[in-house]
Q: What sequence folds into this?
């Protein structure tokens, strides 16, 4: 059985995810469908690519249909990508959205451009490729169809790529790391890993203003393993469930405390003495 | 296989859509279920009817359970409607919610009132007909049950109908058209179609104040096929993926620019010269 | 067929519910899954327990995976609980979340602690027990696996319990009752039932300020059966679809009128004369 997993910036109010499901179930009524999320910020390709990357190791065999697509209707390409190390196809726009997840799964074994209009839905306008181009292609692949029928092969090296999140090591165990994700609980995930925590049990952390190289304000974060180890109001830093460093509070929003937003850059350095 | 598709104003916080799914899966554990949307504005029957109309051409064979039902518990009728031109039943309140979608699918072949209490769930109060009356009826129909068992037939001509969205053609290629939908991206769908774009490559457009016949402010919209053709800040007008005219910006909200809300009326006229 | 029903405070933006579904579908691709809700307020165990209690009578046979878990990663226990009177297992943290629903289904027949790490997902950090501990356990049980394989039995009497919502009867048909739920429509559910309505056709109701024993402001609520019986702006009180008293308006928010929030306490007394 192949599972179809969906991710988009469609939101849940307008019926866009429902339209994807209708097109898929009209072809494969009983195919299992997972909604990874449809609440990526509108047109935020970068946030979508990072959410897909987080989901990648857990995706069941099948097809991922991912759409964050501000260029819909323009000559940007639609693509289907087969992953090297997983029984997975990714379908979506060629704008960088799919690449980080595909790379995490060993890279692309095969890429085709979704050119064959015989697989497209007839539509009055070109602004809903998710419904009209990507969903039929995803259903074709979920049914075990040949990807080569969907269009010509293209070279994986020429897929559009986004910049990787900023991460720079400095002296004395310091680093600068981009905020890759602020979740519902206000946890602030960084483009940094366990190795950046080795300086000691406390870390000084601050968000850099645009163009600054040192933060205007620094907070002391205590290295912990879980939220519940922290007293109220005490900032913590931990290795999160995706293996990244995250700044956290116990039952409160670290993002609000720090004034941190996705795309900001945090500066970290070991604290000499615990506060 | 019959698919059950759900639409409501229940929102996703309170567990109301989950209750529908529980009732249906208690009877048909493996029936495929689609959530079209549950984020219709509370009690906005008109918005629900338009969202259902947009979904109608794509619905897989089966049963649609739609609930936007401010009159729940009053003598307003519950109904099941079989569409003429599609293998689809619609179940919900008789308040106009279902009618536009049914009309788009060739009208009603059969309508029954959901009177037989043997199919209802016993409930302590009458305020959750979705769970107690509509969901069991939808499961009965999804299982291939006879609609006539649910209650007496009623005449489709006597179903409650909502006013159709305002659309008036004026002289010189002008028109007035209601805003039928503002989506998550701020695209402003109008009750007007491709023919209203024939006056030229630019359109003057404004939102009418209550009672006014000409707009206080007009914007120039350029006719395009896709969002990505527009430079930043340039208003566009295009035929959307449902065949309706829509006012759009590239990566920004046309609704915010225009101050447009669902139910407003827009005035359109050809622009003599491009700006 | 066993159904897996999900409830959490994960929200729908971050892909957390999708991660649960991925883990479950990697093991059981076609198992039916219901999303009861994922919009419990972050870390609000009490609200989650009440939402689960409301869903309990309608859950199809199978497994409920419920996660509102501020203590994740600390020594709080993970548990699987088999209900006495329903073909249902509940999986989640031992923090009171599951207990009211289990009690409503006859209490616990068997409880095991999720200790066997052979069933856990390997994970870089301990902060996502839903994905790494609870979802694999839920899949094991949904597949018909033996609960005793997941860990040692523990005594149901020693499960963590939350305080029950406040409800105190006073003289002359009066009572004080906690606000157990404010739903999307602004309906205010109380920890009181049909018997508290017997004083007459009108009730005086007010929200108690912290520490007060009588409300600063009282409103007159008319006893009705359905929202639609009320004229605009008239507060009503009815037995809701869960058998609890609720304060309501017709097409408007009673919570906004009353200034009522979940956890507040309302004071009710019979009104001598209709207003």
A:
């Amino acid at each position: 059985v192949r599972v179809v997993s969906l991710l988009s910036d469609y939101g849940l109010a307008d019926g866009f995810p429902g339209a994807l499901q209708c097109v898929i179930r009209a072809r494969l009524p009983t195919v299992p469908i997972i909604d990874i999320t449809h609440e990526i910020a509108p047109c935020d390709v970068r946030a979508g690519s990072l959410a897909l990357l987080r989901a990648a190791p857990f995706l069941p065999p099948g097809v991922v249909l991912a759409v964050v697509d501000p260029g819909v209707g323009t000559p940007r390409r639609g693509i289907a990508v087969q992953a090297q190390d997983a029984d997975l196809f990714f379908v979506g726009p060629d704008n960088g959205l799919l690449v980080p997840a595909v790379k995490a799964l060993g890279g692309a074994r095969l890429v085709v451009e979704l050119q064959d209009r015989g697989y497209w839905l007839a539509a009055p306008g070109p602004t809903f490729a998710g419904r009209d181009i990507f969903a039929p292609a995803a259903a074709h692949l979920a049914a075990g169809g040949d990807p080569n029928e969907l269009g010509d092969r293209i070279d994986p090296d020429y897929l559009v790529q986004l910049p990787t999140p900023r991460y720079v090591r400095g002296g004395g165990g310091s680093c600068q790391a981009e905020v890759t994700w602020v979740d519902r609980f206000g946890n602030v995930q960084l483009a940094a890993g366990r190795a950046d925590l080795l300086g000691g049990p406390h870390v000084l952390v601050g968000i850099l203003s645009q163009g600054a190289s040192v933060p205007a304000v620094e907070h002391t974060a205590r290295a912990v393993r879980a939220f519940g180890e922290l007293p109220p109001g005490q900032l913590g830093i931990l290795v999160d469930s995706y293996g990244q460093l995250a700044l956290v509070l116990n039952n409160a929003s670290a993002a609000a405390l720090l004034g941190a937003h996705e795309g900001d850059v945090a500066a970290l350095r070991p604290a000499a003495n615990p506060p």
